[in-house]
Amino acid sequence: MPDTQALVNDFLNKLKKRKIEGSQATAKQTAELLRSVISQTRVPYTNQAGALIDSVKAVGERLIAANPVELAVGNIVRRVLHIIREEDLSLATAAMAGLNLSAVSDDEDDADRDDHPVLSAASVAAASRSTLHPPSLQTLLEDVPDTAAVPHTSSGGDSVGKSKSADKSSRSRKLKHDVIEAVNELIQDLSTCHEQIAEQAVEHIHQNEVILTLGSSRTVLEFLCAAKEKKRSFWVFVAEGAPRYQGHLLAKELVTRGLQTTLITDSAVFAMISRVNMVIVGAHAVMANGGVIAPVGLNMVALAAQKHAVPFVVLAGSHKLCPLYPHNPEVLLNELRSPSELLDFGEFFDCLDFGSGFGAPLLHVVNPTFDYVPPKLVSLFITDTGGHNPSYMYRLIADYYSADDLVVQRRPTSEN
User: Fold this and answer.
1) Most-buried pick from 30, 35, 58, 388 (CB within 10 A)?
2) For 133-213, where are the alpha helices, taking DSSP H only?
3) Nearest Cα residue to 335 out of 293, 303, 364, 299
4) DSSP string of 311-328?
5) Any idea what DSSP says for residue 238?
6) How far out from the chain centre does Cα 39 lie?
7) Dihedral angle sign, alpha carbons of residues 253, 258, 259, 261
8) How far apart are CA 88 and CA 74, in angstroms?
9) Nearest-5° Cα angle at 89, 83 to 92
10) CB-hemisphere CA count at 13 Å for 389?
């Protein structure tokens, strides 16, 4: 098995050099790395959850610092931390339920035991969690494992002591196993998020509609193609997404798959928006307030859609749902790309600021990567769990994260 530290260093190098394309690939590789970290972490006899949390946080802090703009990394780190806390709570509740059941059975005679069925610990744990707080999506979807009924033992002290020791030992092994299984389910969900979003396309795209999008997004591509496969006939306007012109790639792919497509410049969005029935775009991240960090140019598209009362729909997998707010200091909303995407260095060499001339430079080049779209401009979010209004996103996000893990990088500063 590869050394965990070598895997972490290799992934850190990829994050720093921006070698991983797309939030889904980044999220999936992050989850796979954290699974390896958990599997190779030695847990003590007591406080197993604390040991796993510390191990994941130690790696997660480094991953987040390597590429702060890629919020999917922090999202997955927090998701895994939430999984550890949920599984530990489930096992602790099940253990307490088992002790209560055994205490009651010691006071009853054999005839009463035959009359009253023994509840499984997992059932009691699930009931306790649902009583404490509303059930999360993960709780609703996960299958309750079948557990053996609590064995009947004598009331002798030696037998009870051996039983408690065995329960502690089995819980230590089961926590790590359950966490890894839950992370495996998370990785599977990440692998199929595009398909789950695309399945909803036929509910939102209707016959003879005109759809506008900007740039290139695999989620948008699969969404539009899924509607085409359901015999929906519609037209797609693709804004080219300067300066990287990713819209050219999307337009070519749409035509290859048989969709009627029109490529337009970004500056033509206002001129064409009156002919559009719906704007469908992807997102880099969805914040807790329902705001969207999206490719540069989308705020202009959202304003145009609002001006002409055109629905503005955002497609985003659950790995893009971030529990932080845009004003949080931990959130880096943007980064600047190379000026070479805008200008030819050879032609503008004498105008650009390279820090070696005297006096103020005559030309500065600013090339931001992202826009921020406020929630008031968004009509609907479509995730792999369904469609949601912007005002509901905070509740959806609360199902995936624990409040104790919102700021993963705060621990080092508290030690000083």
Assistant:
1) 30
2) 137-141, 157-191, 193-198, 201-204
3) 293
4) -EEEE--GGGB-SS-TTS
5) E
6) 22
7) positive
8) 21
9) 140
10) 3
- Residue 11: burial class (beta carbons within 10 Å; 0-12, 13-18, 19+): buried
The separation between the first and the last C-alpha atoms of the chain, rounded to the nearest angstrom, is: 36
Cα 225 versus chain centre, distance = 23
For the segment 53-66, the average pLDDT, to the nearest whole number, is: 94
Pairing outcome for strands 292-295 and 370-373:
antiparallel
Q: How do residues 227-264 score in pLDDT, each as one tens digit?
A: 999 999 999 999 999 999 999 999 999 999 999 999 99
The contacts found for 359-365 with CB under 8 angstroms, 24 or more apart, are 365/339
Hey, what are 360's tokens?
A: 């103020």
User: Is 399 strand, coil or helix?
Assistant: coil
Q: Is 139 exposed, middle or buried (0-12, 13-18, 19+ CB in 10 A)?
A: middle
Neighbours of 141 (CB within 10 A): 11
What letters, b where the CB count within 10 A reaches 16 and e where it falls short, cover 84-93? bbbbbebbeb
Question: Among 391, 204, 193, which Cα is nearest to 279's?
Answer: 204
157 φ/ψ angles, rounded to the nearest 5 degrees: -65, -40
Residues 6+ away with beta carbon under 8 Å from 75: 27, 285, 319, 320, 321, 322, 323
Residue identified by tokens 């996960």 is 142
Structure confidence at residue 94 as a pLDDT band (50, 70, 90):
confident
Q: CA-to-CA distance for 125 and 74, rounded, in angstroms?
A: 29
The pair of structure tokens assigned to 43 is: 């847990």
Question: Could you tell me how many helices (H) and strands (E) the chain has, helices first?
Answer: 17, 10
* Residue type (1 letter), 173: R
Closest CA to 254 of 244, 263, 264: 263
Extract the tokens encoding 34: 């954290």
- More confident site: 379 or 101: 379
Rg of the chain over Cα atoms, rounded to whole angstroms, equals: 26
Tens digits of residue pLDDT in 272-287:
999 999 999 999 999 9
Confidence band for 316, pLDDT divided at 50, 70 and 90: very high
321 CB-near residues (< 8 Å, 6+ apart): 75, 286, 383, 393, 396, 397, 400
The DSSP element (H or E) to which 260 belongs, if any, is: strand 260-264
